[in-house]
Design brief:
It is built from three helices and ten strands. By secondary structure, it is an alpha+beta fold. Helix 1 crosses helix 3.
């Protein structure tokens, strides 16, 4: 097996891996998009909404804002994001205030709603860690691969901002490795 990094930035990673099968290439892709956990707002409590938009529309927009997902958090952690705004204004993701200074929105400039004069919104969104296999809002990025020659595959990893692209790949490989160790342990019984 040979690994060559073609591009490595926080947003995008391109890596060439030779000496693996189609099955292994697909396992890496599926682990990255479905098994790497990240935070997303999963439920919203709307306290006030005098805008022209339905509560559900605003809740959906808030749920799709990428949230930084540090390594030392897990599925038991819950983070509350509070949002309060009054028009006239365009409300951006940077106005979502986190209950945990280690977890915040990944991109400050995502528009959530435009409020007219006198319109207000006030809400709390509970962010939890889950997986892309549950909902695409928990998917940390896009991962694709193309076969070049025989057992040579070029992977393209694009992060949505929750973590750097190379971290998505590393966590996906850790998931595969952990699963294989578990199978190996069970076979020894």
């Amino acid at each position: 097996m040979k690994v060559s990094i073609i591009e490595n930035s926080p947003k995008v990673m391109r890596v060439d891996i030779s000496g693996i099968s189609y099955g292994m290439a697909n396992a890496i892709r599926r682990a990255a998009i479905g098994g790497v956990g990240c935070f997303a707002v999963d439920s919203v409590t709307m306290y006030e909404n005098t805008s022209a938009m339905f509560d559900e529309y605003i809740s959906h927009r808030v749920g799709l804002v990428p949230i930084l997902t540090p390594k030392d958090y897990d599925e038991k952690d819950e983070i509350v994001f509070s949002l309060e705004a009054e028009g006239p204004a365009t409300v951006y993701s940077k106005e979502m205030k986190s209950s945990d200074k280690g977890v915040k929105v990944a991109n400050d400039n995502i528009p959530i709603i435009k409020l007219a004069e006198g319109q207000r919104i006030r809400l709390d969104g509970k962010a939890v860690m889950s997986f892309g296999s549950k909902s695409s809002k928990f998917q940390p990025g896009i991962v694709t691969y193309k076969a070049k020659e025989g057992k040579d595959f070029e992977f393209y990893i694009e992060s949505f901002g929750q973590m750097p692209a190379h971290e998505i790949m590393r966590r996906a490989l850790d998931i595969i490795n952990s699963g294989l160790k578990e199978v190996h342990k069970e076979l020894k019984k």
